[in-house]
Structure formats: C-alpha cells, structure tokens
Design brief:
56% of the residues lie in helices and 4% in strands. By secondary structure, it is mainly alpha-helical. The protein folds into 4 domains: 40-170, no CATH class; 182-247; 260-293, no CATH class; 295-339, no CATH class. The strands form 2 sheets. A two-stranded antiparallel ribbon has the order 1-2. A hairpin with a 6-residue loop joins strand 1 and strand 2. 12% of the residues are buried.
C-alpha cells in the first residue's frame, strides 16, 4: 500500500493517557467573571447584582429591572419632590405608588406601611441618610407578593372601590381629607398660606378647642391668635430664630383667655357642664371651706324614701315578731296615725260617777213623782 493512502503511525503509551485524561462535558464556568448590564437611565454598565429582580412580563428576558439601584433611588427622590411640591397629604406614599406604576411592581398600603416602619426605625438609628427604595423592594419580594405586579394592584383597588360603590380615582381619601381641611381652614384663618400651614393651624385650633371652652366670639378670636402665635413659633424654631417675643405674647394670650394652669384649675372647679353630680360633690367636699352639711328638716328626706322603707320592711318584721331597726321605725311611724283609748284618773270613768251626774235609768222620773 502506498504511503499516501495509509495514515502515519502514532505511538501513544498508557502512561501518556493516564497523565493527560481527555476532558468530558462543558468547561467549568469562571466564577470570577462578572455579568454586566447597561442601565437604561444613566447608560453605565454595572454588575447585574446592582439591579433589582423582576417577575414582570415586561422584563422577562433578563428577569431584572433595566435601571440600576442608584438610579431607582434618584428617580424615587425626584418623584418625592414632585409630590411635595404638589402638596399631597402623604408624598412618600404617592412617590412609592408612582415607582410601582412605572416598573410594574405590586403596591398595597399594608406593604408600604411595613416597609416604611422598618425604614424609619433603621433611619433613626443610622448616622447616614438612607433611601427608602431598598426597604420596599425587600418587602415586595416576599413570598406572598413575589408573583404579583401592578395589575394586581389595579384589580385590588377595583374590588375595594366596588365594595364602597365609588368611582376609581387617583384622588384618594387622604387627599380628600387634606382638601377638606385646607378649604375649611382657609375660610377661617384667611387666604395666602400654603396647605401645610393651613393643616397646622387647623390641627392646633381643634386641639385647643377640644380641651377648653369656646362658646363666644371673643374666645374664638383668642384661640385663633394663639394658633397663629404657635405657627410663627414653629416656623422660627425650624429657622433657628429667637422666639422670646413670641413666647411672651403667647403667655399674654393665655392670661387673656384665662388659660394659665392656675386659672384653668379654678375654672374646672366651677365648671359643671362636663362633670357628673358625683364628681361635683367630691370637688365641693374637697375644695369648699367646709363639707356639705347634713340636710335638715324637710330636706332630710324630701322624697320620704325612709318612710316607705320603714312601712314595707318594718311591717314585715313586726308581723313575724322581729325586733330590729325597721320594726322600731315602723312603730314610730304608726304612732302618728294611731288613735288610743283615753285614760282617766281615779273613778272618773266609773259607773257611779256617771249615774251621779246624769242619773240612773229612769231615776229622775221616779224622784219627780
């Protein structure tokens, strides 16, 4: 056979095969290699672990939100500022709802409250200012929420609104209450303030009038002035300004309205509209110069309850031969309505004396004859 048709002979020893075995299957993955992903917001390539997981059908290819964690925190901060500028009642909640709507995440008030509670606790104990988003994402990835998205939020809202028989709206109950408070306060305190100022003034006024009497126009004006004074002091404290003059004015207003602690105590003693009869009796006994005296005369038992009690219980005790307080009371009461036979001295009531005065039966006729 020609050399061209026969392959060359290769000598391979058993030792060569054992020392260099042929690899089988896929080559092992390099665990040190990073999987990179580009952020749709900042455009930078980041490690895939810098992105939040997502079960939404919108991000099914990678199972990750196409926005890095830092950008999501910044987006949340922008939404929060916008909600604050629009004077929403709860801007943090509104910003969270907007994030969930944008990234197809599930939202519920309970989920938000749980995340906010943990965030507040951690933020109070931390020296650095933390972001709320990592805490919300941690809760939204719990098992009970893992497979839900914003469609479930819409359906849940629909079911709740259906039960209440109301129209679906982004203007929720918090916003409605906020609008009602602002409208009421602007009519009472005057125009020209923002929503937060009106809410502060109205809350202060409601608190003051719920603890103190306010029935006249003068009292109403005093409380209104106190609310404005406390609002200015609140603003000054935030700005780090001196509040000495405001505090002095506040004290004068309390004196005008007789709201000083010593004045309030005297007014509470004399006030009867909010106290029961037993409370007023205790106050009178403890504070008046002498305790309430025992009623005398017809005031001692104006309803004759004691007499009725004596008749009912005393009669029963007398009938069965029991001698006690009730039977004695009964006897004393019965003496007032009992007629006794008159008692005469010596022979005043004898038959002889009667005959001597009036004569015997037919005695006078016989003597005349």
């Amino acid at each position: 056979m020609s050399k061209r048709g026969r392959p060359p002979k290769i000598d391979i020893s058993l030792s060569d095969v054992q020392s260099n075995p042929r690899p089988r299957g896929r080559p092992p993955k390099d665990k040190t290699a990073k999987i990179m992903m580009s952020c749709a917001c900042c455009g930078e390539d980041n490690d895939i672990n810098e992105y939040y997981d997502s079960d939404s059908i919108l991000y099914k290819a990678k199972g990750k939100l196409p926005y890095c964690k830092d950008c999501i925190n910044k987006i949340y901060d922008e939404y929060l500022k916008e909600c604050q500028n629009r004077e929403y009642k709860n801007p943090d909640k509104k910003a969270t709802q907007r994030i969930c709507m944008s990234f197809d995440l599930y939202y519920s008030d309970d989920l938000y409250e749980n995340a906010m509670t943990e965030f507040t606790k951690k933020n109070d104990n931390s020296k650095n200012e933390l972001s709320f988003m990592p805490y919300y994402f941690r809760h939204v990835k719990l098992l009970q929420y893992k497979t839900k998205d914003y469609n479930d939020t819409i359906f849940k809202d629909y079911q709740d609104i259906k039960k209440k028989q109301k129209l679906m709206s982004s203007f929720n109950d918090d916003d409605f209450n906020q609008e009602a408070i602002v409208t009421k306060a602007s009519k009472f305190f005057g125009s020209g303030l923002n929503s937060d100022d009106y809410v502060f003034l109205q809350n202060e006024y409601d608190d003051w009038t719920s603890r103190h009497e306010c029935q006249t126009k003068a009292q109403e004006e005093v409380f209104k002035a106190i609310c404005f004074n406390r609002w200015k002091a609140h603003k000054a404290n935030i700005a780090g300004e001196d509040t000495k003059d405001l505090d002095r004015t506040f004290k004068d207003l309390l004196d005008t309205g007789k709201l000083q602690p010593k004045q309030s105590k005297e007014n509470d003693i004399l006030s009867t509209d909010k106290r029961t009869l037993g409370e007023m009796a205790e106050i009178w006994e403890d504070t008046i110069l002498k305790p309430i005296p025992t009623p005398q005369g017809h005031l001692a038992d104006i309803d004759h309850i004691g007499e009725l009690d004596g008749f009912i219980r005393g009669h029963t005790c007398k009938a069965v031969g029991i001698q006690n307080f009730y039977s004695e009371t009964y006897s004393k009461l019965m003496k007032q309505f009992t007629v006794n036979k008159p008692q005469y001295e010596d022979d005043y009531d004898s038959e002889t004396s009667f005959d001597n005065i009036f004569g015997g039966i037919g005695g006078n006729s016989n003597s005349e004859e």
